[in-house]
Amino acid sequence: PLKNKKDLRGALKIMGLGKNPEKDDVKKRYKKLAQQKHPDRLASKGLPADMEKIASENFAVIQEAYHIILDHIDKD
Helix axis angle, 8-15 relative to 23-37, nearest 10°? Predict the structure, then answer.
């Protein structure tokens, strides 16, 4: 989980990236995670209804991590 909206270390860990990723690598990794973890995709595979909320929360964390990393890259 992310500590706050500037937790770069946590964001990198969530996304499975190293310390200084390139913007293209971040985008590729996000696309891959989005395809695997998107709640709609999981629901179509038979995810139980009670698990959909958890899947949505997890996907929101992935999205936030993505934005934290891109903001950090854009500042440099």
Answer: 60
Residue 36: the pLDDT is 92
- pTM of the model as a whole: 0.88
C-alpha 30/C-alpha 66 separation (Å) is 7
Residues 6+ apart with CB under 8 A from 54: none
> What single letter denotes the amino acid at residue 27?
K
User: If you search the block for the tokens 């949505």, which residue do you land on?
Assistant: 56
Total length of the chain: 76
Closest CA to 66 of 41, 25, 36: 25
